[in-house]
Design brief:
The chain is about 35% helix and about 15% strand. The protein is of the alpha/beta class. Among the domains are: about 50-300, Aspartate Aminotransferase, domain 2, CATH 3.40.640.10; about 300-330. Strand 9, helix 7 (about 200-210) and strand 10 (about 215-220) form a beta-alpha-beta unit.
Amino acid sequence: MRAFGSVGGLPRTIASARGAYVTDVDGIEYVDLVGSWGPALLGHAHPEVVEAVREAASRGLSFGAPTEGEAELAELVIDRMTVGATRAVEKVRLVSTGTEATMTAIRLARGATGRDLLIKFAGHYHGHSDGLLAESGSGVATLGLPGSAGVPEPIAGLTLVLPYNDLDAVRAAFAAHPGRIAAIIAEAAGANAGVLVPDSGFNAALVDLAHAAGALVILDEVLTGFRVGPAGWWGLDPSYLPDLVTWGKVLGGGLPLAGLGGCAELMDRLAPLGPVYQAGTLSGNPLAVAAGIATLRLADADVYARVDAAAARVSGAVDAALTAAGIPHVISRAGSLFSIAFRSEPVRDYTDARAQDAFRYAAFFHALLDAGVAPPPSVFEAWFLSAAHDDESLERIEAALPAAAAAAAA
Ligand code: PLP
């Protein structure tokens, strides 16, 4: 996804980043709309986050032993995932990447249910582990791949890929495989094939259907978690309880950190208390934990309000510029995440996302880049705003959009 495979040209090599801007090795500055693919909620190199990492580094880089910081971060996560009287998770396990978080959650679900099969949705991305690459979003979607070479058929065959926002397909899968499905894994809101907003009540219905069949639900908040709100996408409608939740990106504030959580009864099945193995030399790394704690402590209501306002302003400006240029398009928005699709009808699933004039994005993207604005280099990725996107940076984006829209029309 870092490659410019679908837009052409060469990716910029970045030398530094601060606030809303990245600077490449030629000294050219861009307003950044990628945010390291999500972590940079506060903007790049927030001074207090950098200072927290510096301070942690002065005390040692990695111990392979418990630290107070791990416990503090886990408690911050549990607090955030408690909305009113509803506590979504009781225990948290820290790992280093979102891929590990979802991989571990799936192993835990299989270990707890004694079942093998997994349901995932087409166009959702959960990292690069073997069982999750079928009809995946993100780079797999950008490159137009059906899956990945190197994944043995018996492993791929354990994943049932269903169309998103289609509860009948979920019912049919449970009916076709009685007693065999361990879990449904779903992005809390899809954001890896462009933004795919779940229908109202969809996530809650997944929980009901899964539980009726003795299966679990893994809500993947690696991308949405702590970004679209203090308690992620789940926190915007905490009317249902997923069994396991995964996080990454914002959780580590730009350093490699991710995690999963659930009720104590389930989480205690992980090693060392339980038989489901998980371990990692750098899990809960003290520098990453320090960045995560600083980020979550700084991400208050004002930060979320600013990110939401910036996203509304930029998505509105994109919409206006494409409309003025007469280009059929829709903007899909999930909280502060949004994406463009070059088609007239709404995008509900991966089939819709692929049925668009995606070629238009290359000209649009390069015109913005030439004007010093760096959106994601694929139409299948969400745009990421931050609390550091101030008037000046937003005005630069707005000024660049009309010419980019004209380029997309050509
Ligand atoms: N899950 C979701 C929803 C993601 O968006 C991603 C990465 O983009 C992952 C999991 C994998 O995370 P990582 O790239 O840290 O392995």
